[in-house]
Amino acid sequence: MNETQRNNDSITLTIATAAGVSESEFLTEAETSALAHFVKRVGWFEFNSHSVNEDEAHLVKQAVDKLQNVLSRSGFDPL
User: Fold this and answer.
1) Of 10, 19, 28, 47, which is most buried, counting CB atoms within 10 Å of its CB?
2) Is the pLDDT reported for residue 6 higher than 90?
3) By C-alpha distance, which of 25, 3, 23 is closest to 11?
4) Mean pLDDT, rounded, of the chain
5) What is the pTM of this model?
6) CA-CA distance, 19 to 40, in Å (whole number)?
7) 18 pLDDT tier (thresholds 50, 70, 90)
8) SS3 readout for the chain
9) Which one, of 49, 48, 43, lies nearest residue 65 by Cα?
10) Closest CA to 11 of 63, 22, 1, 30
11) Residues 75, 71: Cα–Cα separation, whole Å
12) Cα(79)–Cα(76) distance, rounded to whole angstroms?
């Protein structure tokens, strides 16, 4: 199956830039659920230890919080 012919079970993750360019990737429901579980479990230790400084760690946390929020609104809200 090619990238343009996905079934209804696939989820599209799209990122659009300020310049109007969009990039998309198809995820299975299992992949999306696993991603939701991961972003729920990851925390400050990982953000801080993998960033060059605390400012970057805070930015990463903000981005992950936003990703978790959109996953939750899309029905992927792990317990």
Assistant:
1) 47
2) no
3) 25
4) 91
5) 0.81
6) 30
7) very high
8) CCCCCCCCCCEEEEEECCCCCEEEEEECHHHHHHHHHHHHHCCHHHHHHCCCCHHHHHHHHHHHHHHHHHHHHCCCCCC
9) 43
10) 30
11) 7
12) 10
Euclidean distance between the first and the last CA atom of the chain, given in angstroms as a whole number: 33
Exposure string of 66-76, with b = 16+ CB inside 10 Å and e = fewer, is eebeebeeeeb
**Nearest to 15, CA basis, from 63, 65, 75:** 63
Contact between 78 and 38 under an 8 Å Cβ cutoff? The reply is no
